[in-house]
Amino acid sequence: MVKTAKAIAMTVQEMVTKSTTNPDELGILANQLTHDYGQLAQEAKPAALTAENEEIGSHIKRRVQELGHGCAALVTKAGALQCSPSDAYTKKELIESARKVSEKVSHVLAALQAGNRGTQACITAASAVSGIIADLDTTIMFATAGTLNRENSETFADHR
């Protein structure tokens, strides 16, 4: 989902560039933006359902919906600029819409990050436990081989 959100941000930036250099290509970019947003919306459903709590899930949904409204406005501005490529006011509106969409992408990413805090904590804890288990396995291996035996006749097996 993060990858798709970043793809949207890149497409938006490209739309700003093409608005001044080649407005004829805005239709292709608007299509790409629409496709990427559709994919993001599909990916947001399971992300919202598996969020830590219902509040975070609804926050993710709300941010994705706001992004959708921003994308729709940007596509509309791109169409208007294609109709009149030399209109400076329309270019300005497109750039402003693009800025809003970029801002909304960052809001979506922030909402996703808030939803992942618990998951990230579990991953960190699992990694720490895995490291401890590996250390214990190594110690057991050396002890079984007899390299950790004391000078007296006691063996690891006696204590195990």
Automatic annotation (TrEMBL):
<dbReference type="GO" id="GO:0005886">
    <property type="term" value="C:plasma membrane"/>
</dbReference>
<keyword id="KW-0963">Cytoplasm</keyword>
<dbReference type="GO" id="GO:0051015">
    <property type="term" value="F:actin filament binding"/>
</dbReference>
<dbReference type="GO" id="GO:0030036">
    <property type="term" value="P:actin cytoskeleton organization"/>
</dbReference>
<protein>
    <submittedName>
        <fullName>TLN1 protein</fullName>
    </submittedName>
</protein>
<dbReference type="InterPro" id="IPR015009">
    <property type="entry name" value="Vinculin-bd_dom"/>
</dbReference>
<dbReference type="InterPro" id="IPR036723">
    <property type="entry name" value="Alpha-catenin/vinculin-like_sf"/>
</dbReference>
<dbReference type="Pfam" id="PF08913">
    <property type="entry name" value="VBS"/>
</dbReference>
<dbReference type="GO" id="GO:0005925">
    <property type="term" value="C:focal adhesion"/>
</dbReference>
<dbReference type="GO" id="GO:0005737">
    <property type="term" value="C:cytoplasm"/>
</dbReference>
<feature type="domain" description="Vinculin-binding site-containing">
    <location>
        <begin position="1"/>
        <end position="117"/>
    </location>
</feature>
<dbReference type="GO" id="GO:0098609">
    <property type="term" value="P:cell-cell adhesion"/>
</dbReference>
<dbReference type="GO" id="GO:0005178">
    <property type="term" value="F:integrin binding"/>
</dbReference>
